[in-house]
Amino acid sequence: MNLGEKIKALRKKRGVSQEYLADRLGISFQAVSKWETGTTLPDVTLIPAIASFFGVSTDELFDFDVYGISKKVEAIVDEWKNYLDSDPDKAETIIRDALKTYPGNEVLLNCLLSSLPLPERAGDAIEIGRQLAANAEDDAVRIDAYCITAEAYRAIGEKAMCREYVDKIPETYNSCLYVKAILLDGEDGFEAAVKEKCLCYEHLVRMLIILADKYVERGEKENAVKSLETLKKLAEAFRDDPATDYTTSCYDPELFESTEQKLNSL
Q: At CA 154, angle to CA 149 and CA 156, rounded to 5?
């Protein structure tokens, strides 16, 4: 609904004529008529008076519904997630189209940043990441921007800039999910616990792989083998990990196979 349509709807809801509204605002009824037909827009100085007359906020007058926008953005993000792995180009298109409707939206920009392949699109990632790192109001979005911007700089060999953004990332000892799992009862506590379990598993898997590579760099092949053997045991231990309404099973047979291949290459 545009501004003229909104004024017309509010006027009819209140049961007043164009002449009555015009008289209260000190303008001609023809001006009100032109607003409602979309021919012209009210002078910006009249906006507070129009909102006051109808007893609404200026946000409501302009049909700016923060909660409604948030729910629409959530739906867009859910759709984006469905294509992020299977069709990255479509995922990026979904976000870019959404940004035409919600330009500058932090959540959508963060999704776009996460969609860009590295090092191929490192320049784009750095541009968006620096913007979010400097201006994002949401802490989670800003921290994501630090991480991905650092990763993009690393991908193009800019080690000093990578370190600069890595150093911006705050040290976190307990995640929100971890605390919820411990302190909340019922379904809320269960949901937090299974999600935190999956995140911890993913982090541990990645660290064991990274450590194996770093041990090789240090010439400590024996310790590299130990890390990969631990990873195999971990993958096997999660063979019967159950899926839930909130998460898939952590078990990944391909991880076991890829680890075995990595061990054979050492």
A: 100
Q: Judge if pTM exceeds 0.85.
A: no
Taking phi over 0 as left and psi of -120 to 50 as alpha, with beta for the rest, 22 belongs to alpha
Residue type, 142: R
CATH class label, 66-166: mainly alpha
Q: Tell me the C-alpha distance between 125 and 119, whole Å.
A: 9
Per residue in 16-75, pLDDT tens? 999 989 988 999 999 999 999 988 989 888 988 898 888 888 878 887 666 677 888 999
**CATH number of the domain at 3-61, please?**
1.10.260.40
Which residue matches tokens 């952590």? 250
- Give the number of other CB atoms < 10 A from CB of residue 98: 22
Here the tokens at position 148 are 């991905």
User: Half-sphere exposure (CA, 13 Å, Cβ side) for 245?
Assistant: 5
